[in-house]
Each structure stands twice: as structure tokens, then as C-alpha cells.
Amino acid sequence: MPSKTPPIPLRPDLNTQIAQSVYGRNIQRLTQTFVTLSLSDIASEVGLPDADSARRKIIGMVEKGEISATFDQSKQMMSFDTARMPPAELLEKLTAQIK
After folding, report:
1. Which of 33, 11, 12, 15 lies closest to 23 in space, CA to CA?
2. What is the DSSP letter of 35?
3. How does pLDDT run across 7-38, given as a tens digit for each residue?
4. Which is the most buried residue in 31, 60, 62, 85, by most CB within 10 A?
5. What is the average pLDDT across 40-59?
6. 38 lies in some domain
7. Helix 39-46 with 51-63: angle, nearest 10 deg
8. Which of 74, 46, 75 lies closest to 58 in space, CA to CA?
């Protein structure tokens, strides 16, 4: 009888990285569909627990240059703006997303 392959051990740090990557990718998809969304709608769409989680994730993505967005704190709305990226950078990011 062939021996069973041992199960792959769970790695919580890897699971967290994967989840964060999925959240980020889903937020990037929203920027291609919507111009303005509430933080609670963003959280709901990408599966984050609440609006504050969405705000923190988006701020991190903006700081890394992954997306361009502005936040209206009084309305709790996020506006996505691809026009603010230099054309060469925007083309590079879109090309990378297509691959």
C-alpha cells in the first residue's frame, strides 16, 4: 500500500498574507467599477469585517502606491482616482494585473 502524504501544516501567518492579498485584489477590482463607495460598502463587497478595516486596508494600499484614492471623512466615502497616477505607472500596473 502506498504511504499517505502527511498533511501540510497550517501556517497562520501565510493564511493572513493570503487573506490580505485577496482583500487588496478585491479592492483594486472595485476601483475599476466604482468611482465612489462608502467604507461600509467596500467592507461588505470585499469581505472585510467592518468599515474601519476597509479604511485601514485602503490607506495601506494608497501608501504602497497600489491604488489612488481620497477619503471624505464627513461622509465616510472613498473616491478612487486612476487619473492621478502618472500614465506610465498606470500602464505598468494595468499590464501587471492582466498577466
Report:
1. 15
2. S
3. 666 666 766 777 777 888 878 877 776 788 89
4. 31
5. 91
6. yes
7. 90
8. 46
Q: Which domain holds residue 80?
A: 17-98
Would you state the cell numbers that stand for residue 29, as one nine-digit string? 477590482
| 50 inside domain | yes
**The three grid cell numbers given for residue 18, joined into one nine-digit string:** 493570503
CATH of residue 57's domain is 1.10.10.10
H or E element, residue 38:
strand 36-38
Cβ(46)–Cβ(6) below 8 Å: no
Q: What is the pLDDT of residues 59-76, one digit of tens each?
A: 888 888 888 888 888 888
Percent of the chain with pLDDT over 90: 13
Indicate the number of domains in the chain: 1
DSSP letter string, 39-83? HHHHHHHHT-SSHHHHHHHHHHHHHTTS--EEEETTTTEEEE-GG
